[in-house]
Amino acid sequence: MDSFDLVIKGGQVATASDSYVADLGISGGRIAAIGTGLSGARSIDATGKLVLPGGVDSHTHIEQPSPPPQKNADTFASGSASAAAGGTTTVICFVGQKKGGSLAEAAADYKAKATQSRIDYSFHLIITDPTPKVLEEELPPLVAEGSRSVKIFLTYDGARLNDAEALRVLAASRKLGALVCVHAEHHELIQHLTAELVAKGLTTPKYHALAKPMVVERECTARIVALAEALDVPIQVFHVSGADSAEEIFRARARGLKVWAETCTQYLVLTADDLDRPGMEGAKYICSPALRTTADQAVLWARIKDGTIHNITSDHAPSRFAGPDGKLCAGPNPPFTKVPNGLTGLAARLPILFSEGVSKGRITVQDFVALGCTNAAKLFGMFPRKGTIAVGSDADIAIWDPARKVTITNALMHHGSDYTPFEGFEATGWPETTLSRGVVVFEDGAPTDTVGHGRFVARAPYDYIKPLGA
Amino acid sequence: MDSFDLVIKGGQVATASDSYVADLGISGGRIAAIGTGLSGARSIDATGKLVLPGGVDSHTHIEQPSPPPQKNADTFASGSASAAAGGTTTVICFVGQKKGGSLAEAAADYKAKATQSRIDYSFHLIITDPTPKVLEEELPPLVAEGSRSVKIFLTYDGARLNDAEALRVLAASRKLGALVCVHAEHHELIQHLTAELVAKGLTTPKYHALAKPMVVERECTARIVALAEALDVPIQVFHVSGADSAEEIFRARARGLKVWAETCTQYLVLTADDLDRPGMEGAKYICSPALRTTADQAVLWARIKDGTIHNITSDHAPSRFAGPDGKLCAGPNPPFTKVPNGLTGLAARLPILFSEGVSKGRITVQDFVALGCTNAAKLFGMFPRKGTIAVGSDADIAIWDPARKVTITNALMHHGSDYTPFEGFEATGWPETTLSRGVVVFEDGAPTDTVGHGRFVARAPYDYIKPLGA
Amino acid sequence: MDSFDLVIKGGQVATASDSYVADLGISGGRIAAIGTGLSGARSIDATGKLVLPGGVDSHTHIEQPSPPPQKNADTFASGSASAAAGGTTTVICFVGQKKGGSLAEAAADYKAKATQSRIDYSFHLIITDPTPKVLEEELPPLVAEGSRSVKIFLTYDGARLNDAEALRVLAASRKLGALVCVHAEHHELIQHLTAELVAKGLTTPKYHALAKPMVVERECTARIVALAEALDVPIQVFHVSGADSAEEIFRARARGLKVWAETCTQYLVLTADDLDRPGMEGAKYICSPALRTTADQAVLWARIKDGTIHNITSDHAPSRFAGPDGKLCAGPNPPFTKVPNGLTGLAARLPILFSEGVSKGRITVQDFVALGCTNAAKLFGMFPRKGTIAVGSDADIAIWDPARKVTITNALMHHGSDYTPFEGFEATGWPETTLSRGVVVFEDGAPTDTVGHGRFVARAPYDYIKPLGA
Amino acid sequence: MDSFDLVIKGGQVATASDSYVADLGISGGRIAAIGTGLSGARSIDATGKLVLPGGVDSHTHIEQPSPPPQKNADTFASGSASAAAGGTTTVICFVGQKKGGSLAEAAADYKAKATQSRIDYSFHLIITDPTPKVLEEELPPLVAEGSRSVKIFLTYDGARLNDAEALRVLAASRKLGALVCVHAEHHELIQHLTAELVAKGLTTPKYHALAKPMVVERECTARIVALAEALDVPIQVFHVSGADSAEEIFRARARGLKVWAETCTQYLVLTADDLDRPGMEGAKYICSPALRTTADQAVLWARIKDGTIHNITSDHAPSRFAGPDGKLCAGPNPPFTKVPNGLTGLAARLPILFSEGVSKGRITVQDFVALGCTNAAKLFGMFPRKGTIAVGSDADIAIWDPARKVTITNALMHHGSDYTPFEGFEATGWPETTLSRGVVVFEDGAPTDTVGHGRFVARAPYDYIKPLGA
Question: Of D163, D186, D229, which is closest to B188 when you measure between CB atoms?
Answer without folding.
Answer: D163
